[in-house]
Amino acid sequence: MKLFLASLFLALSFQGSVYAQAAPIDIVFDIDWTTFYSIDTTSPNQIDNQNIAIEGKTYRPTEHLGEVLQALSLHPEVRISFFSGGEKSRNEALLKKLILPNGRRAFDIAYRVLSKENLQQVSEDSNLKFSQRYKKSFEGLLPGATPQRTILIDDQVEFSKAPWKAVPSLGVFNYQKVFDNRQSAQQFYPSTEQAWLNEKDKALMWKSLLEEAIVLSRKSDKPFSQITSDLWSAKSQNSLCKNVFIL
What we know:
Elements: H1 2-21, E1 25-29, E2 36-38, E3 52-54, E4 57-61, H2 65-73, E5 78-83, H3 88-97, H4 106-109, E6 110-114, E7 120-121, H5 130-133, E8 134-135, E9 150-154, E10 165-168, H6 193-200, H7 202-217, H8 224-235, H9 238-241
Parallel strand pairs: 1-5, 1-9, 5-6, 9-10
Antiparallel strand pairs: 2-4, 3-4, 7-8
Helix pairs in contact: 2-7, 7-8
């Protein structure tokens, strides 16, 4: 029995080493309206003990964010980064305030924290949206990263510059501590309690789909970024949410 356990331990250790030595998988998260909400402190339904005050503004991390980041960081081939068009000081301060279940800060597990100065300007036309004038490209910013093994999760997928791929953050609403039917007809508020729940638990959907993509990429010739995009298209519909919201 001892010999069997020792052999199993060595096999698992070797497997983890192989994954760690392979080309990295880079998972890059946007910040605003993806991993963090902007909070209106005059709204009682947005007051929460997880709110974070930074540089005169208030933010609230997406529900389950700490657990999900911690789980993804345990995969030896995965590097987690953040890319926001916000100021570097704000982005880093937010991530330093977010504490994971194991006591580490989100900032501590981040491979890179990319900010406004890292955006690539592709147009000077002021009539275009910000996401049309500026793009998120990882060329030269994430050493060793490739478009085949990198995915951006962003509420505005058009920020990604080809050939880098992005998938939507699956969230479209403002933060609500509890569902408020009185706001259901307002823009950027859920119209049903199920829609509110889907928004609340979107990070669990990320975890489920990303971990499935990581496992599939280990035994497939298809690029991780394409696997992730395909899974997002096939499984991220609301009707499937209830099946994956498990940590």
